[in-house]
Amino acid sequence: MIFTQHYLACLSQASYLVGDEGSGRAVVIDPRRDVAVYLDEADDHGLIIERVIETHVHADFLSGHLELAEQTGAVISYGSGARLEFPAEQLVDGQRISLGDVTLEIMSTPGHTPESICIVVYEHADDTVPYGVLTGDTLFVGDVGRPDLLASADPDLSAEALARRLYHSLHDRLMQLPDATRVFPAHGAGSSCGKQLSTETSSTIGSQRASNYALQPMSEDAFVATVTEGQPSRPNYFEFDAQRNREVRALLDDVLGRQVAGAVLLDCREPADFAAGHVRGAVNIGLQGRFAEWAGDVLSPQHDIVLVGDPAAATEAKLRLARVGYDRVVGQLADSAAVFSANPEVVEASSRLTAAQLATVIDQRSDVQLIDLRDSAEAQGRVLPGAKLVPLAALTESLDDLDRAAPVVVYCASGYRSSIAASVLAAAGFADVSDLRGGFAAWESACAR
């Protein structure tokens, strides 16, 4: 058996290739959008990718099912009930898919979404103990999938209703597998699809039974309360990506060649470089952070994007944006240094305050607005005096709650997200915006002296 986990750290996303060496047949599960990695692996092992299986309709990245189907002729498959706008085979509970000796069994596990499935992998068709189970967003290492992403007026899609279905999917289905069964989830630490995912990207049913907080003995009501409380803010782009994953859309190669036609300026340099000088109105999202997710938090997918910064980073930036469905990258400012030199009137610097400077501002300005960009679970009640919690994902929807005439200071844990937020506020017309260099950690360190 060929079994490979492809982990994309910048999105905390795992995809899988499973193949039978004897028959040369393979499937890919939950593929990312840039699919060359699967094609190359299949070619290396002499495999033919004949099926793409999605464990559910993803909301946090744009999946590569259409790209793989286009390039390999693979059949796209989803769990029963998935609402799609393209042809796909609906997989049913208990269905077995033979790749030769290697066999996959479909397990219906609604809860994170109604159509969620898990895929039990048997190395040999007559094995009694599975090799492993691909759990999608139903079960993570250290956590379970959040049930609130589809919350709507439909009572069947409420967080409570889906949490109850998730409880039974976990206890009545997954926890019935042998303890030795390996667990391979679709996400790891950093994903917004849960609240305390482990940095480990695989585990076993037995280990999760013993250590996962959501799998400890508790009533169904207690489980519902536990998994619905304290979830991180839902990133703005999730709804957009979920819809795009249901649609027939342009393929990745089609969108990278578009021409410049007017756009939001996205500067991908690091915060210190951006602060030193940038085109007025540009938004700063550095590539060293969770670039694609944060872009989805603060940029509209309906706007064209022109990249500003190191041209060598443009290809990577385009790729990461495309992974979350932001296809409208229409150009690159080829020589930003020359542009800055020749057009100083369009260049400005950012205000970044040290903890000591911020303390002075607070003492001198009673109207300063302090914005803490962390989630409540991240902040744990430890905020600057008078600060308002506005997670980055909620910032653009909260602009009307701020006084544009008064100074604004934004901060996060370490100073990376605050550079993004400060640039968004400045681009939105806020005249006096600063961020706290080093974030809350710098403030606490200064106060401890």
Reconstruct the topology from this structure:
Blueprint: E1 2-8, E2 13-20, E3 25-29, H1 36-45, E4 48-53, H2 65-72, E5 75-79, E6 89-91, E7 96-98, E8 103-108, E9 117-122, E10 132-136, E11 139-140, E12 143-144, H3 159-173, E13 182-185, E14 203-204, H4 205-211, H5 220-228, H6 238-244, H7 252-255, E15 264-267, H8 271-276, E16 278-279, E17 283-284, H9 291-298, E18 305-308, H10 314-323, E19 329-333, H11 336-342, E20 347-348, E21 351-353, H12 355-364, E22 369-372, H13 376-379, E23 388-389, E24 408-411, H14 416-427, E25 433-436, H15 439-448
Parallel strand pairs: 3-4, 4-5, 5-6, 10-13, 15-17, 15-18, 18-19, 21-25, 22-23, 22-24, 24-25
Antiparallel strand pairs: 1-2, 2-3, 7-8, 8-9, 9-10, 11-12, 13-14, 16-20
Description of the structure:
The chain is α/β, with parallel strands linked by helices and 449 residues long. It has 3 domains: 2-238, Metallo-beta-lactamase, Chain A, CATH 3.60.15.10; 252-348, Rhodanese-like domain (Oxidized Rhodanese, domain 1, 3-Layer(aba) Sandwich), CATH 3.40.250; 351-448, Rhodanese-like domain (Oxidized Rhodanese, domain 1). Helices cover 28% and strands 22% of the residues. The protein contains 15 helices and 25 strands. It has helices at residues 36-45, 65-72, 159-173, 205-211, 220-228, 238-244, 252-255, 271-276, 291-298, 314-323, 336-342, 355-364, 376-379, 416-427, 439-448, and strands at 2-8, 13-20, 25-29, 48-53, 75-79, 89-91, 96-98, 103-108, 117-122, 132-136, 139-140, 143-144, 182-185, 203-204, 264-267, 278-279, 283-284, 305-308, 329-333, 347-348, 351-353, 369-372, 388-389, 408-411, 433-436. A 6-stranded mixed beta sheet has the order 1-2-3-4-5-6, covered by helices on one side. It has a 6-stranded mixed beta sheet with strand order 7-8-9-10-13-14. β22 (369-372), α13 and β23 form a beta-alpha-beta unit. α3 packs across α5 (220-228) and α9 packs across α10. The protein is globular. The termini are far apart.
